[in-house]
């Protein structure tokens, strides 16, 4: 009883002793953490380029100081990263110090960064000693670091294992191997990588590397090899504070080992005597100190898991081999093996293994791991190429050193080369390594298309081939970056293509990251000439054109009309006979291509003699006649259709475009000797910058095209191509189609829907119009972009679905509508649909552009000097065309705009006297200024008259609008106004627009017609006034013979004077063109630009009464955005119309961020898209010119304070960033509106002061 009575007192005393012990331990840990925390830093690391196993990006991690005198910080390899990085360390007192990478291990997950201790001004540096031998099972630890974004986080745990297998993170990324790991249940997360794992004495016993979230397990790298590396690095520190190139011998024979227990190695065939020998040796080695289970390698042996092909161990070791000895020493764990290999670099080791119970031995060469670790990066067209590293070779069982695609970017991605691919050849030249690939690349010209061979690891036994289109325009020529560990940076060298060496234009393309290097241009001359002068893409193409079966586009009125621009039909007129014109429902797909080239039914001579018509009339079978009619129609349309492929580089994704690749069907509307025009929807050619490629249905040929007109409101674009790049046969077969805008289609009309598939085959069906004027209302996207407004489209009872676009035509082949694709974002999901845009919407613009081309050619012809006849008395073909001569149709005629400005001497014949082919010819781009578009800067929406009456619309106006359009019975009301426009000042949302200039309107077509009439009248008046002024200024006006691209340039870079027949002759309004081209967009400029715009009188219904208001129209440039500035990885431009349609512009709105790039300062500091930049370092930036003047003065690494305004919330905020001219220089893309050519220009580089 006494003992039982005294038991509670004993328990109480024990509890008091335990509490006291816990309190003592807690105090000890507090003192330890107080000493450790000042040495722990938060690392902000930005990898500027994709390289090896890592992608470009920005992240937070942890590191800790291990040598405060030299400024050494230990962290993980995946934090240091193998590629070019920019990083800062943030100490406990929130002091930021720049750090540079010094070393990372080729295999294990540790690396070192360095900083200048003298830069730490407001606190004393601390360091954490390394104690790898202090790790033991059951040890209490603390992990101190940046966990889940917290600046300082302390997690506790207990070491559970010392011999855990190295964690496997990814099949395609970095993985540690040939080492044990420590394991504990501390549950670390993102941001804690590189944290010290400390004991109660404040010593680091491990390096936090990874974890498994589901099991709350954390993995720590042992520090034995880290200590060795640190000692060697300390020896590289010079007394003056600089560093020599680190050299840390790391040996390996490219074999991966795994630790297996004795039970498993027995099953692999390990002999009993060998096991006994190994166990005895380990027992003797460890002695009696502690349980064997705590000693790594005491319960098993190392087994070969994989061997890298082509490595030193290839053919010597095989998976399943059990390692017994190295150089006669028994080896059962990784530390001993690495000690032996690291001390034998460049030599050999004697390896003894057992394979299936058979002892084997071999001498294997020990390779320096740093020789198989890539040190060079090829920056190619926005992508990254390096030699295949040991890491990736091991992951994919491939030989190291091959040409490896870390990131395809634009150039390789466009050619279909995927990420992680191996390039084996370029242009017929093998590329076994990066050096060979660079040399092959330097031999290519801008615009050249060459085969590229590659394979992927998923299909390693299949070699693939595609065409690489060489393009230095968007990214400049290739750059080679080389790691410089001593300086902590990557040195850059421009690899000039041989064709660009010595070119005076080589200084404009690359914003040179290194002083003294030539900076070639992609926008000027490349490949020995102008970038715009691409070589022909067909071996039999001929320049100049000469006399041929030319074709001008037909833009007529009613079907069969002969008015307008002269035209040539691609085939003979389709016979108009009742027995042939039977409606044929269903789909017709062309079975083969023979009919186009060789079929006797379509022989050109027979057709010219009327054989086709005669054959059609002579047919007695009704079915045969119908089939012949359909075949004739399909053949004619096929000659005028083309597949349009668009690729947009990342550096040119302007105006909120939602994709990088587009494809659709285009319609050839004009072709002369030097200019071809193709009409396509704006869901295919969405913006101006990008590479457009045309594949013709008439002939297997491809040519590049340029954007020449982007309608700001309607869903169509006009692109141009150079017919001189086509073979003579292709030019003969490709024919423009005739546009038939009148009479308008009505409900129930039968039309022919003809589309061109991606395999260039015709799809044809007869459909019925169900709605000839469906109002289009496209919702605003999450990211503002182009949307068709004020558009009425045609809907059919049957079509081909979303994947096909083409034309709607009548039985005579006249194009009644463009069957195009539309895209809109609904609930954050992209949805596409197709509809027909009536020809009346685009035919006038096609006429304007063709007329402008004819006018430019006549001016060139008038100003060209007289030419001597060529050898043999033959006059140059181009001279004849410039003089306006007409060639008889039998010998191949061309319209008034069919002549050209050839590559030399104003033009060239089909073949020169030297017999050179067109593949060696270069052609000057044809100047073709885009027409301007006068717009009513208010978006209208239809409202049923029954609803309008409920809002109080007077009965007389209801009756009047019903009489105007008895079918739709609607009124238009204001949905929104374009920000910064005069309409926004005058109109209000929900105003009902009843009439324009006294004429009632109730549909979008009514509004468009009235605006067009006002614009035409104003343009005529302006042109008359300009002509009078020219006669009165004493001859100082512009000379008629002056080519437009040689006229004086205005501030926005466009030619002065008239901009073509599509506008009133004034420059673009500041609401769009003025500032967009780089102007400041000030109120004075906007007022001056708006003064020359016409006004319209609107009759509106507002607040219960009918009112009259005067609204000044706006003007949009026909090419949209014409300038893109890249600063710190952010893409800046003038706000495009899609942004201004939202109805808000800040006071300083000329600099809008439309995109940012991974791994850039913009990514790192949050300079994201959809913001305006209103100030930089307190300096106002109302426009791009002012912005450039401010940032041009900022040196590399300078702090910049940027004031932003969000596009949607209009909230203002200020952020700071550091410039990085080495990896992210400032440069811009500019558009020459006359030629449609984009060029790259450098603004600042690392040498900027």
In brief:
The protein is α+β, with helices and mostly antiparallel strands and 1249 residues long. The protein is 20% helix and 30% strand.
Please name the CATH architecture of the largest domain: Beta Barrel
Q: What's the total helix number? A: 25
Radius of gyration: 37 Å
Structural class: alpha+beta
Give the count of structural domains: 6
Strand content: 25-35%
The pLDDT mean sits at 80
Separation, N- and C-terminal Cα atoms: 92 Å
Largest beta-sheet details: 9 strands, antiparallel
CATH top level label of the largest domain:
Mainly Beta
- Poorly predicted runs are 1-5, 509-620, 866-920, 1030-1085
Q: Give the number of DSSP strands.
A: 63
As a percent range, the share of helical residues equals: 10-25%
CATH topology of the largest domain: Thrombin, subunit H
Shape: elongated
Keywords: Nucleus
GO molecular function, one term: peptidase activity
InterPro entries: PDZ, PDZ-like_dom, PDZ_6, PDZ_sf, Peptidase_S1_PA, Peptidase_S1_PA_chymotrypsin
Biased composition (Low complexity): 520-533, 861-898, 910-919
Structure overview:
Pfam families: PDZ_1, PDZ_6, Trypsin_2. This protein has 1249 residues and is of the alpha+beta class. It has six domains: 27-236, Thrombin, subunit H; 255-281 and 298-370, Pdz3 Domain (Roll), CATH 2.30.42.10; 372-501, Pdz3 Domain, CATH 2.30.42.10; 630-855, Thrombin, subunit H; 932-1020 and 1094-1112, PDZ domain (Pdz3 Domain); 1121-1242, Pdz3 Domain, CATH 2.30.42.10. Helices cover 20% and strands 30% of the residues. It is built from 25 helices and 63 strands. The strands form 13 sheets. Strands 21, 22, 23, 24, 25, 26, 27, 28 and 29 form a nine-stranded antiparallel sheet that branches. Strands 55, 56, 57, 58, 59, 60, 61, 62 and 63 form a nine-stranded antiparallel sheet that branches. Strand 2 and strand 3 (72-75) form a beta hairpin. The model is unreliable at 1-5, 509-620, 866-920 and 1030-1085 (pLDDT under 50).
